[in-house]
Amino acid sequence: MSINGSNQIQDGSTPISKLTINSQDLDFSGASTFAVPTVTDSSADAAAATVKYVKDSTNGAVVTLSPQEIFTNGDGSQTTFTVTGFERSTTKELRVFRNGLKCREVSSSPGVNSYTASAGSSGSPATITFGTAPASDDELEIVWLNPSVS
Q1: Which of 130, 115, 135, 143 is nearest to 42 (CA)?
Q2: How many angstroms separate the CA atoms of 6 and 16, rounded?
Q3: Quick check: pTM over 0.70?
Q4: Secondary structure E strands in 1-149
Q5: Are 105 and 96 in contact (CB under 8 A)?
Q6: CA–CA separation, 20 vs 138, rounded Å?
Q7: Integer Cα distance of 14 and 131 in angstroms
Q8: pLDDT single digits (tens) 38-97
Q9: CB distance 100 to 89 below 8 Å
């Protein structure tokens, strides 16, 4: 999404007329300002939030972004993890947390709290690789948004 020259939020070349966050509608057709609802729950329940936006109020196409997440634990030796369900050509949408702290994606030579990622493709999920194997008591959470159109 971006802001066009008329200060409209748009997806590609189509202005978006409404955004819904956690069932709260933001209608900005003709509006110059609006309040954005915030999610203050930092627990796993916050991942249940969905974001929807209407691309075209005429045909009512709605894109829903549903959070997906994988929880797993380290074992002290495994450095590579498969991100089942994430089959995209880019990994920039992945968020990886180790013991609740966000890890950083790097292009090479990952450290303790960083990782490299290889993108997936249709039928082939992405993988993430840590430089140091997460310990057996390390909790890992991998999160991304899964879009669907209705």
Answers
A1: 143
A2: 12
A3: no
A4: 2-3, 9-11, 14-15, 18-21, 24-27, 51-56, 61-73, 80-83, 95-98, 101-102, 104-105, 114-118, 126-130, 139-149
A5: yes
A6: 35
A7: 42
A8: 444 444 444 445 555 555 555 555 666 778 899 999 999 999 999 988 877 788 888 999
A9: no
